[in-house]
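Worked example 4.2. Below are the chains of a multi-component assembly; read each line carefully before continuing.
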Amino acid sequence: MSEGTKADDIALALEESIVSGEIPPGSVLRQEHLSEQFQVSRTPVREALRRLAALGLVTFEPNRGVRVRMLSRDEIREAFLVRAELESLATEIATPKMGDSDLAELKAAERRFSELTRELVETSHAGRQDLELAREWLFANHSFHDVIYAAADVPLIERMAKAARRTFLVKPFWATGADLDDLFHLNDGQHRAIREAIAARSPEGARVLAREHVLSSGRLLEAILDKVAAQARETTAIGSSI
Amino acid sequence: MSEGTKADDIALALEESIVSGEIPPGSVLRQEHLSEQFQVSRTPVREALRRLAALGLVTFEPNRGVRVRMLSRDEIREAFLVRAELESLATEIATPKMGDSDLAELKAAERRFSELTRELVETSHAGRQDLELAREWLFANHSFHDVIYAAADVPLIERMAKAARRTFLVKPFWATGADLDDLFHLNDGQHRAIREAIAARSPEGARVLAREHVLSSGRLLEAILDKVAAQARETTAIGSSI
DNA sequence: GTGCCCAATTTGGGATCCAATCAAGTACAC
DNA sequence: GTGTACTTGATTGGATCCCAAATTGGGCAC
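Applying the procedure described above to all four chains together yields the following structure tokens:
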């Protein structure tokens, strides 16, 4: 439809669904079901799944099916380690290359992210769970970093960093609470620091800040996962007492 | 045959052929031809190709075919930048984790690589072109680094670094000559320096050395490519005068 | 030489079909 | 009741045949 082959379209659509949490980790993807859903035969579906498998988003379990990968805590931490490394490199490379318009774009992305962070925290305090807001928030975060990738203009880094970034699932992000506000706002503030270092033409400074920022994002995600896990345990406990 | 599905087997076989230079960059892979070659139908062949495409080894050109990617100088340089970054991280992580047996293994790999480097340089001086030797040499180089990856025990880093490493094609490596000996032996010596830093339990030192080593490997490869290009120009000039 | 049209390939994809495999249930022995 | 073997149903991996659309490489007129 949009562009290229059906297999590509399906792969992209599935990728979106998986990253956004619409299809939860651990699910088994039935070929026939997908072929109905996308109104195609099994052939392009299977090709799309092969692609996702190569990207590490799903795993083939021969004769049993394709399962959406479930990442362990270790794997998530590793993904942030890798991202920290790649992103600091990208930032270093991008710094001397960024013109005024790039910096303006960066500032706009920073501002949008700030707003959404505030919204997300408020919504969360109000006890609501807004998946769409969480998705936008995550998207805004990515946008900020994408400006840097685009300026660095090293496709391989961008590809790999984005691959590592797919561990950053949307789903848990409505599950915040007062005790995480600091982490959220820290995360937010770091964007500004990075931008200022870039504007000050300090590749080394920007590099160090970018690294620290990604690692700190990782700690935020881990804190959120802990919280979700704790909530799940609580729910289970209540459930079992009924 | 070996393990898993046919699509996986084919993908692995093709990957080997491409990296080893048996299938040169720029070739178009015909589905029917491959299905005859591997004695299977087009179905698993196409799935294998999708996987290779996701790994970045080939590109789908809709309705025209699948082409083995041809990397530009820029892309090759970028791949080494990324590898330098990932490898220095892996080395830092691996350093405190490596036991005596790991260090022994590393030393063995280092020694084997030294021998093959000597052989490769000698063979090259004698004017012979031994593709099999070049392949072994490259394999020995990879083995050294693989010991470190294994010790670091971070699968994501390993996967990504190996993806970046596939730019390191075997083919040009018989094309050495006297003026590259220094680079070859420098490269060789750096392995020793890295191992010694690891043995001295200096993660930061090992990290810096690993980074410098990969970047220097990149310079070696670029020098080789220049040489090959120069030879090709020469050959063309002679050819055109006939 | 340039432009245009046609035929041959080749791909993307659909529709069927089948063997191997696995999950789950069932029967059976103990 | 528990453990084991058998049967069954669902699903996958793959083969085979099919066809429309796109690309390519001429040939042919001009």
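Take a moment to check your reading of the output against the notes. Chain A has a mean pLDDT of 88. Residues 5-7, 40-44, 47, 62-64 of chain A lie near DNA strand C (CB under 10 Å from a C1').
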